[in-house]
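Let us work through a complete example step by step.
Step 1: write down the sequence.
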Amino acid sequence: MAPDRLRTICMAVSAEARDNGRPSSWSAELDALASGADSPDEIKRLIVLAAGNTAPGEWSTYPDSNLTSSVHNPGQSWNALTVGACTNKAIISNSDLSGYTPLATPGDMSPFNTTSLTWEERKWPVKPDIVLEGGNAAKDASGFCTVCDDLSLLTTGHEPTTRIFESFSMTSHAAAQAAWMAAQIHDAYPQAWPETVRGLLVHSASWTDAMLRRWPGANKGDKAKLLRCCGYGVPILQNAIECARSRFTIISQQIMQPYEKPKGCSAPRTKDMHLFKLPWPKDGLLALGGLDAQLKITLSYFIEPSPGEVGWKSRYRYPSHTLRFALQSVNETEEEFKRRVNVAAREDGEEKPKTKGEPERWVLGEHARDFGSIHSDTWEGSAAELATCNMVAVYPIGGWWKERRHLGKWNRQTRYSLIISVLTDQTAVDIYTPVAAQIHVPIVVNVQ
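Step 2: predict the structure and record it as tokens.
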């Protein structure tokens, strides 16, 4: 009746994990459906998945049980938004549960949350992508754990003639909330691609204080563990939809051809690199001097899964293509930045650049964020330093479109969404208005 209506697909069905992040036939089919690879018209779809729940017998060992309980199949899907569970439910008022206490503290990971901490490192996607309210469990003095209405959420019952309302919890409820948020974003921005909606939910997410207390380390190894357990954190719908004056956001939807095979070349090579010149209000940022500033970047795209399970043991053989982003370093010239990220130019014999990407300024760094088909990270420094970092590059690396040239897809194009936000701790400074006066969208240049 309405084939062109914008839809978000929510699925809370899962099976016990057995692949440790490796693609399955189920997750690969979801990747194909999301990417449009199985559709003659190549329609892209946003699919929201529940991460799956820890077994009831393991709740008593919370949080250790969460660290060893893997995200369920097909939650390892590269393109789907996989949703885990956190909780703010911590009050038990039922007199029948006298002596019971909540397992998790407010803001922490839910006892039902599954993680990707046990997956093979530096290979498969970070899952869950985000976490939302999934309820809590109650524990008595003997160690017995149970779910209860006080620590669950309310929803409509599936048999309204018998019971109008039901209690609801775990990652199924978290996935339902994420799908609702995605629908709100679609309603606010009808022209937004599914890749963009997924990117906005991740981009608006942040870790709670309770999550940061559980992994208090400042090093990137601790942050990588937090990422594998709680994803990018709890999304805030208002931040995903609105841009406040102290936090402006640039959203760019682009099409790129990652690879090419020039005449006379025996194998495909990387082709396009997109360079974004960002309209920073330099005078305003320089006026802030040494005050703290943050730049958050999220890159979201859908991959096509490798057909026939060929090469599924390698992360570069499973996805059709993989993209990365890079930010201009403090005091790095435009030419130095291009040479640093332009892999194709270096392959032609040019010297490697002397400048570096300043990994110490990123909260996660590429060793933690560069997995799957969505990458998000936050650069931290002073406002004056940020004023000199006004260029972002998006570029391709490996994928089976390039490596399996006999399939003839090396000249395919792909879509991606790039989301960039600037945050400062000086709310009195208007960053949004000077940018809006300059330009409405970033300037994009293809560099080959």
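Step 3: interpret the result. Residues 243-447 form one domain.
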